[in-house]
Amino acid sequence: MPTKQELLKQPIQHIDIKQHNVVALVDAMQHMAFSSRDLHRAASIYERMLLDTDCGVILCLAGSMVSAGLKQIFIDLIRNHMVDAIVSTGANIVDQDFFEALGFKHWIADDLLRQGTEDAMLRENMIDRIYDTLIDEEQLRFCDDTTEKVANSLDPRPYSSREFIRAMGAYLEQEGKVPEKGGVDSIIHAAYQNDVPIFCPAFSDCSAGFGLVAHQHARQDKPKVSIDSAKDFYELTQLKIANPTTGLLMLGGGVPKNFAQDIVVAAEILGNDAPMHKYAIQITVADVRDGALSSSTLKEASSWGKVDTTYEQMVYSEATLAVPLITGYAYHKGAFKARQGKRWSRLLEPVTA
Amino acid sequence: MPTKQELLKQPIQHIDIKQHNVVALVDAMQHMAFSSRDLHRAASIYERMLLDTDCGVILCLAGSMVSAGLKQIFIDLIRNHMVDAIVSTGANIVDQDFFEALGFKHWIADDLLRQGTEDAMLRENMIDRIYDTLIDEEQLRFCDDTTEKVANSLDPRPYSSREFIRAMGAYLEQEGKVPEKGGVDSIIHAAYQNDVPIFCPAFSDCSAGFGLVAHQHARQDKPKVSIDSAKDFYELTQLKIANPTTGLLMLGGGVPKNFAQDIVVAAEILGNDAPMHKYAIQITVADVRDGALSSSTLKEASSWGKVDTTYEQMVYSEATLAVPLITGYAYHKGAFKARQGKRWSRLLEPVTA
Amino acid sequence: MPTKQELLKQPIQHIDIKQHNVVALVDAMQHMAFSSRDLHRAASIYERMLLDTDCGVILCLAGSMVSAGLKQIFIDLIRNHMVDAIVSTGANIVDQDFFEALGFKHWIADDLLRQGTEDAMLRENMIDRIYDTLIDEEQLRFCDDTTEKVANSLDPRPYSSREFIRAMGAYLEQEGKVPEKGGVDSIIHAAYQNDVPIFCPAFSDCSAGFGLVAHQHARQDKPKVSIDSAKDFYELTQLKIANPTTGLLMLGGGVPKNFAQDIVVAAEILGNDAPMHKYAIQITVADVRDGALSSSTLKEASSWGKVDTTYEQMVYSEATLAVPLITGYAYHKGAFKARQGKRWSRLLEPVTA
Amino acid sequence: MPTKQELLKQPIQHIDIKQHNVVALVDAMQHMAFSSRDLHRAASIYERMLLDTDCGVILCLAGSMVSAGLKQIFIDLIRNHMVDAIVSTGANIVDQDFFEALGFKHWIADDLLRQGTEDAMLRENMIDRIYDTLIDEEQLRFCDDTTEKVANSLDPRPYSSREFIRAMGAYLEQEGKVPEKGGVDSIIHAAYQNDVPIFCPAFSDCSAGFGLVAHQHARQDKPKVSIDSAKDFYELTQLKIANPTTGLLMLGGGVPKNFAQDIVVAAEILGNDAPMHKYAIQITVADVRDGALSSSTLKEASSWGKVDTTYEQMVYSEATLAVPLITGYAYHKGAFKARQGKRWSRLLEPVTA
Lengths: 353, 353, 353, 353
Fold this sequence. Notes:
Four copies of one chain form a homotetramer.
Chain A: H1 4-7, H2 23-29, H3 34-51, E1 56-61, H4 66-79, E2 85-88, H5 90-101, E3 107-108, H6 119-124, E4 127-130, E5 133-136, H7 137-152, E6 158-159, H8 161-175, H9 187-193, E7 198-199, H10 207-219, E8 226-227, H11 229-242, E9 246-251, H12 254-269, E10 277-284, H13 298-303, E11 307-316, H14 319-332, H15 344-348
Parallel strand pairs in A: 1-2, 1-9, 2-7, 6-8, 9-10, 10-11
Antiparallel strand pairs in A: 3-5, 4-5
InterPro entries (chains A, B, C, D): Deoxyhypusine_synthase (IPR002773), Deoxyhypusine_synthase-like (IPR023496), Deoxyhypusine_synthase_sf (IPR036982), DHS-like_NAD/FAD-binding_dom (IPR029035)
Enzyme class (chains A, B, C, D): transferase
GO molecular function (chains A, B, C, D): deoxyhypusine synthase activity
């Protein structure tokens, strides 16, 4: 049996779109067919979204995007005001981004391992697998414990996941887990610095959930920290009301897509005549024929009054191929240059540092 | 433009597996290849799960399963002790099941509509579309309002989604929205009567979210009902600890799959040496190559220590084809007959009615 | 290393739709959503096709349908006049059906094998794998040799694949490889007896190709048997001209789908105003977004003038699940009872046995 | 109703990989996960294939690759000795490449059209649709007629598709449909000039089929041109025997994949101990779970003795995204520079121009 060290040798390295000017390549794709043409249109809509300085850009993340090597892209989007809020699965933000901020890495799995025939061996080595990528489970347990620590440090009351993740950002700052102090950069810390709120509407199905369960278990009948998913929804809706022009950049589907689309309706229920999301892009390989939300077209979302159909585009591609091209295109076209950060966290939490 | 009445003419009718003995058909499939053989094996594992009276069966629902005509199956599973807990997206439970319990229906969309070219017309008619199925949005707003009513009736404190859904079951009982009083049967009410807990770990991304946002908005700074997703996780973990032998019957992936698998690890974190899920079935069309959790194999889950690989089977099929065959097989084999309801809700809430 | 005998223990057994009355089950699916509703509609269109006694039904086969356990269905369709011509990949007809007619079997692969990590071991054992199914390659070589024998027995000239396959049917008859003589039944022989022509427009990419290459190689500069794919096309077009009302029952896509659809245009080119295919069903999991013919919608085919859109239905399902339900429905509804065999082979080859 | 002119306004323009140096971008992908890492490995294997000057590179084309804007890539591969033989569906070579060589174009379809709701309107305008791309059917009929002319010009005997396509190349030359004479460049003509054989093993299911049917119909009982698919197979096998080291670059699956893989076995049957294909790449979105050849893994092909597994890689991507990156990588790395054209056509037809 190979040892853990033998298995965890080649780290995932995050692609840096700043190094690759793909503008001419993506522009050439507009004259082609199928995914290439759609990808160009999506990139153009993202550019347009950014040029519309009124537009608040909401990035939605489902799937294992951070462990797959896209982390630096999301950091660059935050630092260049190309995204104003993030809605994500917990795994991307806690198990993967926070995990790496704590100093850990994701590892490239040998090609054979993805077939699944060696998973018992991985199990014995306390190694977790995400398709073709490996994680040291002992390190992940440390990450769980750290979220418990963060929970223990907070006043016992209901928090939105956004508030909790902001506290995780503060924790990184305070522990020096930031580039300025020799740490690695992270989505959570970049968002903390730039007042970009991050929502994980199903916050408990990730490493944070383990920390929170441990916290609640330890507190027994004493007051405890809880995660109020309704508050998440209320907060994001308030952002929509305060900043009616919005655009969605969605990688994958799932809860983040559903949650972010729904705020249009929620705003209306609160008596505000919020417009539909003006721009919407989704990158997905999900097949529309299973009728699920993840695969449902943005046209279908327009029947629900959630997404306008003038500037919407779905791109049929696994994300690691399409995301560098779409975001790199907008970056190198300089579409972000006139933008100020919207600093939406301040809207929700007036007294920020 | 067609009127709403013209568009909403043919209701979705839920298939009744009790009427269709598929045992011989599914048994014949064991000697074939591809999805048919896998389907037979999944049905056999489900049967085995039920014959193992120690096993607590957790049904996971993602995708639009209730609006697609599978509701009666889930009700029958509950009433025949073929499922002991449900983990679901909010849409299945609130927007679809509770919605129908309130007396509303889902409607068959004309074939043309699924192409998405008529969504603006649907929008004008206040009709929402789920692929090939239609919903009267005005009725859905009534459903939102009803969840607000339920929220308003509760003491202001953090609730697990399970507690809230149980309150929805009590509401249906109290309002007479039950078969005994001429209403239609529902998953929520069958679960209420049979003490089957229902968890929606991302409870706010559905009709319940709208009701809860309205509730929290109206309460302003006063104490309010909140939905604690960590409590959901804690509760389900407690069930795993109390009843170590468990099996998963998963339709689709997403948060329900992730959440239900994770409780093995959570139990361990709480100091309990819980075994992996002993049985696991997933029906999905998601493609493993995007690396997402929804499509990840049950073998991959074993590397995380979540699912044992002796009795696991994925079935590549859209759910409306596979679910009637798999559940119908187990039903007509009589596998449930020796089972008592586990009445897990009582474990979590000792003083039940 | 396991031996060949240990690996080839459980044979594929073909499902017998005559034993499973699925009418009520499929009828219940018409009120549901997604694949189930589409499957019901496809089954109804197939029934309608059969009730229209003018209609010539063309069955198109791509993918490994015979080795997957569907062979008996195709035989039953032929013997009950539910299909009038077959267009197939070579593998289904030669490597799989003729192969079994020669007395060989396909075998169930242990679940592990489909991951591909044991393929080198299979190679050493001279075992070929089709996903979860195994074939003894030595037996397949015998099948190759037999097609060479058939080629050697023919006058050297260009043959349509249909003519060659008819000669294979005659060979089975003459060798006593038929049920009446203790052999197993086959598509080729049932088609031979019922004058159902079988076309394999890419005849050389299968076991027949190996036999024919050996034949041509041995003949060197002497006159030889050749396979004229243009003649295939010409013959099928003549059937369309002689019998203008046609319907397609397509399993998978590929060359068979393209070829069978194209005859409408070919008829027109020959100066005959042939109507589009009046009925069309396709069962496939191919995703429309790659723009390929296999996944292209039947609506798209209507832009080419190939398929009418009044009675067309695609069903999103792996074939082993959908085909028994669709064909079983039509069979048990008795839709074939008023039909006479069209005996199309006689149209092409006036002097048949 | 829009006119044909209004519908056919924006032509497909073919991407030119020579203009886009993607080496750094693709190199960055090797450290990521999922499709990006696989794409890098495929690009590296293609580079390795080219550096191995013994290796004969066989390009396999299925799907609508030429109309999608990839034509110039294939021309560049031929002219830079990056491909030594092509196996394709007929559509790519005849309906799309030859069609454009005759002076026609493919057109970008308005986004709405791909939904299929306007296909009747397209039909009335004699416009054919390939997903999001349009073709003037009247021009396609001219293409059919031209293949008939080519057939009429040949001695009546069986031809391999390769011979026929070579005759099409000669026709273009003779008619001045070449860049040197103001025409547009084409795969067929570049292959003609560079002695790169092109095989379409199912030659009749395309525009050539229409021309050949017309030819055979007009000849009645007189000797006629026929297309011998067995000869195709025999010829390609001879190339494998003459040049044992081979690599496959496969876009899509279908007949081209099957046919090209099979020649290893055919060589063996002819008594030559040909090695498996040493290198193999496939770009596809087909899902392995339907058990079809198109989606079958290259590992599975190794159980058949067709593909070696040391240098094989499948890439999960729609082709228009992956092909420019993979081929552009090998091109800009200069991997082709030490290569001479293998001029395989001369092997098959000793006396070439």
